[in-house]
Every structure is written in C-alpha cells, then in structure tokens.
C-alpha cells in the first residue's frame, strides 16, 4: 500500500477498484495500525486542541466505532440495495469516510462544525483561490489548510491560521484593523494592506514580502519582532534553530500561483522538500553533493510530472519514479 494511493483515497480521487483495494487493506493488521496512527496524528495537532474540560481522544475507541459502521449490516441499511460492480466499492468508500468523520467529530467537530469558523483544505498538487470576509484573497498551494472566521466585525483583528503555503493579498480597512497570519511554531505575521507569500510546513517557515509592510513576531524562539521591506525573505527552521533574512526576487518566490516555478540559486534539497510538501511524495537524492547543487531557471508548474520533466531537461538530471517515490541522480 502506498501513501500516495491512501491520500487520493481520502481525497475521494480513486477508481472503484482502487477504493476496494484500500478497504481490503484497512481490514488487515497493518491497515488497522495505520488508521490508529492517522487518528492519533490528526487529533494530536496543536491547533486542533480540545475545548476546556473535554477529555482527550482515544484512537482505538474511534477506530472500533468505524469498524462497526463498516459491517455488512450497516451497509444493508443504506436505502439503495442493488448496486452494480462500479457503485459497490464507491459505497464502501463513502461509508468509511463518513464513519471516520463521525467518529472524530465528537472530539474536534466543534472546529469543523462551528458556523463561526471556516476551513479550506487543498488536495496534493491542487491550487485554489478564496476570498476572505474582508475582501482579501488567498491563493493556497497544494496540501495547504487555512482556518478563519466566517465574518469579521468592525474594529476586530482579522486572524487566519495557515498550515502549508499561500499567497496573500490583504485589503486595507477604513478603521485600520490588524490582519494577523498565525503560523506553526509561534511565528505570527502582522499586516496592514500588502502582498506576501508564506510557506509554513513542519518545522520550516518562509515569508517573502512582495509589497507593503509586515511585521513578524517570532515568538519565544527568537524573542524579537522583525519589520520586513518589499523583497525581503525571512526563513525560520525552529528545530534546527536557523533564522535568517535576505534579499530575493519576490515575484519569483510566488510564481507557483501563475503556473510556473522559478528557481534562483535554489538547492536541489529545497526542490525535493517542495515536491514532498506539495505532492505528498518521497524524494531521494543519495549523493550529498547533488543535494547541495543549486539550480536557476523557470519550468512549468502544471503537474508534478511536468516539474520532473523540466528539472531533468533543464539541469541534466536522471529522475525515476517508483509509485510515490522519486529518485534523483
């Protein structure tokens, strides 16, 4: 079983045959363990903590509830009883995904079901643009999530929570309300009408200012506030305790939203991390010297395959793909 197939399954992007294959695997000991780990990971995220006085979740109990909902009796309860060979696996898939959401909603459903908050999640490799309540827009890269209030009142701080990568175009309000982007690891961005690109994945965060003015609150890690100018890039790796600021071509950093990728002295290791974060694959570069090799140029960004083809052609690389594993030599 590959992680790529599992991600497509949960995004409802599989064929009936693939759905049946995944469901059969879920019924094995290995699949059972995977589901428990997936629930533990989702419920253990810092930004999805429980409300006060609510006990912590039990992944094993939730998984048992899911398995009960997947019994033949529960399937027979579905109104339509006669299904052709195409529809049957898809019904199983729908029941399982629905059961997963129902089993977990008791713990963190207050986040998803609270009408005062909205969550926008993009699939691997998919770019989407949305408009916020104040008219500001955000373009989300693949595998990214944005949480925000369904409406903001006058004199209220406009707050959003980003996990992934997004390009923000923030509107300036008549009453000068603050706009704050919360990133993982206590990194916050305060904005007053501007355009900027943000990448926040795992322990790494990168902010690039296109125009306007923003202030970074680095929180407990660096204990300082940093005012950025257009063309500034700020990078933070909390785990490695690496922080730096440098001047870059800001438009190149956000070119991904226009259907192309622009590299300017970018290491192949950084390119590999981008592919892993955006497309959910594993990239292997065995040669340490090759990892440090830098690339410069522009390639299409229509799909992962066009990116791989462009990298291979532009930089004379040998790239092979085995399921969701990419090998660069």
From TrEMBL:
Keywords: Membrane, Transmembrane, Transmembrane helix. InterPro entries: FecR, FecR_C, Ferrdict_sens_TM. Residues 121-214 form the FecR protein domain. Residues 260-328 form the Protein FecR C-terminal domain. It holds the Pfam family FecR. The keyword Secreted does not apply. The keyword Iron does not apply. The chain crosses the membrane at residues 92-110. One of its GO terms (molecular function) is sigma factor antagonist activity. Coiled coil: none annotated. This is FecR family protein. It comes from Spirosoma endophyticum.
